[in-house]
What we know:
The chain starts with a strand and ends in a 7-residue tail after the last helix. It has 149 residues and is α+β, with helices and mostly antiparallel strands. Strands 1-7-6-5-4-3-2 form a 7-stranded antiparallel sheet. Strand 4 and strand 5 form a beta hairpin. The mean pLDDT is 91. Helices cover 24% and strands 35% of the residues. It has a single domain, classed as Alpha-D-Glucose-1,6-Bisphosphate, Chain A, domain 4 (2-Layer Sandwich).
Amino acid sequence: MNEPVVKSVRVECPIHDAFVTFTARIDLWWPMAHRRFPDSVVVMEPWTGGGFFEKAQDGQEARLGKVVRCEPPHALAYTWYPGAIEKPTLVQVSFVQEPGAVLVTVTHAVGESGLGDEWPTRARRFARNWDVVLPAFAALLKSEDSVLP
């Protein structure tokens, strides 16, 4: 089965802040332990066709994906290359306003990669990683650093 990985978190902030923090402010919350280079900068260009990459201080760059859909502040989709440069997966993120909070749901799927038998193993790894990455996103939004200018 190629069932997608689905993970959600509720954050108490305006929907716009959740979207901007997830995209344009990703470097502030993306865990260091989930980066390829020490002291790198993670950049997501929040528009359809924008890049998603990690840049090391020495100039090395790792392509993480490409934004394939950007509908602020409600939806985002990007390809995800780590682990299979030739067979990217698809990450879709929805932002839904609820009373007093925003429900952020990540759906990480095979996409057009055709991973077949590789997907169950990779999906387990993605599920574990999202269990670290999404709480880091939520933690920034709870902190004083989350205030947008």
